[in-house]
Amino acid sequence: VFPGNCWAFKGHQGQVVIRLPARVYLTAITVQHITKDASPSGTIISAPKDIAVFVSLLGTSVDADREEETLLGMFTYSVEKDPVQTFFLKNMLLPRAFSYVKLLVKSNWGNPWYTCIYRVKVHGKMENQKASSKGQD
């Protein structure tokens, strides 16, 4: 993780839909940014602040034009904590595996021009390994 080597988007809001390599029972999501010490400016105001995570049924519906999403959690990435932060998802109401995850960044820590995300990790169990594996992410 090096300064500037990030997924950057214009402004303080943005989104990305991640297609997972298999259907996954989701448990958590990890977001990473650089530290203040690693930043050339000494600030990390381009870090995401308010984040919402959705699962998407894209590509699984008969009606391809219809997009169905369910919110699994809203989180705040803190610039005062560790740069790698894990947020646990509320998947109890949806005991099923998903192929897509949408990360919606609703705000950042004050940079009006852009927001940066350095790493996103999706945690869970693959659908075909749910019963047989123990603790694999």
UniProtKB/TrEMBL annotation:
The keyword Kinase does not apply. It is found in: Nucleus inner membrane. One of its GO terms (molecular function) is protein-membrane adaptor activity. Its main location: nucleus. Keywords: Membrane, Transmembrane, Transmembrane helix. GO terms for cellular component: meiotic nuclear membrane microtubule tethering complex; nuclear inner membrane. This is SPAG4 protein. It comes from Chaetops frenatus. The gene is Spag4.
